[in-house]
């Protein structure tokens, strides 16, 4: 049977459309590790502002540039008291919520003798985008930030480990909320990180995106395809933390989660914990999800981390 020419053209166009869709999906889900390696580069320059006093601590903004052009901004918070002799302190690198960035240090307060370095996400888009049109316009910037965040952690560590006040044997990485996937990937790839802390985070990025859309899109039948599309656009299947967390072992993983978290489903927490290797610890704390308007939640998280960490300073090794 001879196929009519119009139908042949229609089938050909359908085939091209399917091939284009398939190619786009493959591109969105490509292996990100070559990009991570290329973007990290080597440390090229460091610019530091004057330190600001905040009670018994000081905070200093530092801007780092890598040989690839990657820029990293972080706030370093440490004890302000003068030291009679150089000492090395445990370092906590913090990846907080997407709007908090390096400002997370101000919520930490007293560092109890440790050093906290809070990273700004490498997002060059519009933080105030609202509505479907504005948000869609930010997708390229969002994808750049997602792919550049893990190498930003590695480049930041290149600088931080060059400081004489950092103990290289105690490098603690904290991924808080939105920072969970990036902290997990960074820890999985960088053995300089000695322990991974995940605060109010979970696995299965599709489930988390779906939960995040519930208020704006209450109809589940409409929300599901939107969540799947968003998950694909941000390469969620590649970046979802349960794909990476097993590689952190045998370094310990500690998950700190809220009993009444309205943003992170318990199933996501349990899935991520199950995927982690040993040693690992899951701690449930009272309260809701962390945010700037709930300082008591953040303070309880900081207290839980510092209570489990060895904060004893060590003499500096000769350089």
Largest sheet: 11 strands, mixed
What shape does the CA trace take?
globular
β-strand number: 11
What is the mean pLDDT? 85
Give the N-terminus to C-terminus distance in angstroms.
83 Å
Task: Give the radius of gyration.
Answer: 22 Å
Helix content percent band: 25-40%
**Topology order in helix (H) and strand (E) letters:** HHEEEEEHEHHEHEHHHEHEHE
What structural class should be given to the helix and strand makeup? alpha/beta
Kindly estimate the percentage of residues that lie in beta strands according to DSSP. Answer: 15-25%
Q: What is the overall number of helices?
A: 11
Spans where pLDDT lies below 50 across 5 or more residues: none
What does this structure look like?
- Helix content is 39%, strand content 23%.
- The mean pLDDT is 85.
- The chain has eleven helices and eleven strands.
- A hairpin with a 2-residue loop joins strand 2 (52-54) and strand 3 (57-66).
- The longest helix is centred in the first third of the chain and has 24 residues, at 5-28.
- With 319 residues, the protein is α/β, with parallel strands linked by helices.
- Strands 1, 2, 3, 4, 5, 6, 7, 8, 9, 10 and 11 form an eleven-stranded mixed β-sheet that branches.
- The protein is globular.
- It has helices spanning 5-28, 33-40, 104-108, 131-137, 139-160, 180-189, 205-212, 220-233, 236-239, 266-275, 295-308; strands at residues 43-48, 52-54, 57-66, 71-79, 87-95, 115-119, 166-176, 195-199, 253-258, 280-285, 314-315.
């Amino acid at each position: 049977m001879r196929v009519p020419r119009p139908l042949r053209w229609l089938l050909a166009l359908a085939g091209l459309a399917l091939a284009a869709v398939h190619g786009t999906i493959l591109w969105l889900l490509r292996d990100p590790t070559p990009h991570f390696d290329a973007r990290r580069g080597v440390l090229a320059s460091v610019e530091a502002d004057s330190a600001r006093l905040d009670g018994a601590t000081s905070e200093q903004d530092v801007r780092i540039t890598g040989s690839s052009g990657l820029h990293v901004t972080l706030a370093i918070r440490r004890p302000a008291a003068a030291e009679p002799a150089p000492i090395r302190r445990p370092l906590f690198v913090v990846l907080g919520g997407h709007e908090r960035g390096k400002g997370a240090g101000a919520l930490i307060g007293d560092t109890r003798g440790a050093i906290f370095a809070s990273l700004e996400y490498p997002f060059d888009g519009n933080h105030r985008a609202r509505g479907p049109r504005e948000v869609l316009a930010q997708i390229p910037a969002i994808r750049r930030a997602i792919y550049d965040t893990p190498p930003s952690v590695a480049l930041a560590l290149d600088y931080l480990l060059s400081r004489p006040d950092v103990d290289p044997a105690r490098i603690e990485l904290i991924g808080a909320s939105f920072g969970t996937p990036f902290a997990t990937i960074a820890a999985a790839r960088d053995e300089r990180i000695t322990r991974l802390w995940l605060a109010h985070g979970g696995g299965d990025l599709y489930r988390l995106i779906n939960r995040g859309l519930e208020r704006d899109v209450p109809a589940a039948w409409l929300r599901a395809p939107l969540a799947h599309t968003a998950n694909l656009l941000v390469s969620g299947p590649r970046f979802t933390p349960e794909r990476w967390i097993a590689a952190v072992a045998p370094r310990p993983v500690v998950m700190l989660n809220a009993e009444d978290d309205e943003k992170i489903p318990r199933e996501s927490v349990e899935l991520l914990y199950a995927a982690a290797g040993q040693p690992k610890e899951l701690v449930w704390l009272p309260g809701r999800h962390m945010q700037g308007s709930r300082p008591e939640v953040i303070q309880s998280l900081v207290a839980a981390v510092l209570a489990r960490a060895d904060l004893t300073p060590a003499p500096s090794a000769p350089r």
